[in-house]
Amino acid sequence: MSTYAAYYNNSQVRMESSSGGLFTLIAERFDVTYGVTMTDDCYGCEFIRVEKNLECLRGSKYLQARVGDTFKHVKKDLLDHKRVLFSGTGCQINGLVMFLGKEYPNLFLVDIICHGVPSPKLWREYIEYQEKSLGKIRKINFRDKTEGWLDFGMMENTHFSSMHTDPFMQMFLRNYCLRPSCYECHAKDLKKSDITIADFWGIQDVVPEINDNKGISLVITRTSKGQDIFEKIKEMLIYKEVTYEEGVRCNTAEYLSANKPKLRKVFFVDLNRLSFDAMIKKYASSITTPKWKIILKKYKNYIKKILRRS
Predict the structure, then answer these.
(1) In the sheet where 65-66 sits, what is the strand order?
(2) Does the pTM of the predicted model rise above 0.85?
(3) Are the C-beta atoms of residues 222 and 3 closer than 8 Å to each other?
(4) Average pLDDT over the chain, rounded to whole?
(5) Helix (H, G, I), strand (E, B) or coil at 267
(6) Nearest one of 65, 28, 23 to 47, comparing CA atoms
(7) What is the mean pLDDT, run by run of 10 residues, along the chain of 310 residues?
(8) Residue partners of 306: CB distance under 8 A and separation at least 6
(9) Do 4 and 239 touch, CB atoms closer than 8 A?
(10) How would you list the strands of the sheet with 153-156, edge to edge?
């Protein structure tokens, strides 16, 4: 197993991706790619099969994707000797492996480090709420980089809202709305993917020289197939090998399940009885950071910059 900080040196693909654009670069090497896209009405997301146009698969979708009969189609493509890439969360990867029942040399598995899967009902309530002021939502980017990769936000049509203020993102990041299994995720202990890709949070403390706030991927090669692919694409990357510990230090979702909030059960009771405005007030209101913490953080960052120069 090897761990890297990396990004694709194609600036357009990188900016359309959640982190460093590695998924697109990997997928271009396969005949068929299975991944997740938003539904036409933006009320959900689903797995689709793609041969060439990968644009709709780029970017994170913080929703539960409908699998349908995707596993059957994957098996058919494998039996037809197509080179297949399947991308998804750890539990989806493990589910596919169990369904297939044996290894296929022409199958490549890419998983993402998963924070957890939020409630579909919450998403529907959120979209209905947003459409009252924004009109029909036809395009969504969960990880827009208008304000930079480190301060991403939601872009709905042409409306941007910071992750610090967007109500859905706040309820998601505070763990209120996750599936019960996400608080005890067995996929954290059973890794079946060839490569794991994620955001390299904390890059500024590990490899600051490649951080331009446009997105850096954390890449973990878990198998020989995963390492072989990385070797084939590395000429098109800006990358630096790091230790596994450095890579996951600020991305503990790689090995830890989400903490279950005390109000999680009450949250879903409220979701069925309160207005969305009331849900925002109770579960997504801004958390004010004490002034002394802001000053201390600035001081620490200042000291780090001085130490790097010396």
Answers:
(1) 65-66, 45-50, 32-38, 84-88, 107-112, 195-199, 217-221, 2-8, 237-242
(2) yes
(3) no
(4) 91
(5) helix
(6) 65
(7) 96 92 95 96 95 91 93 98 97 96 96 94 96 94 92 93 94 96 94 96 94 95 97 96 96 95 96 96 72 50 56
(8) none
(9) yes
(10) 140-144, 153-156, 159-162
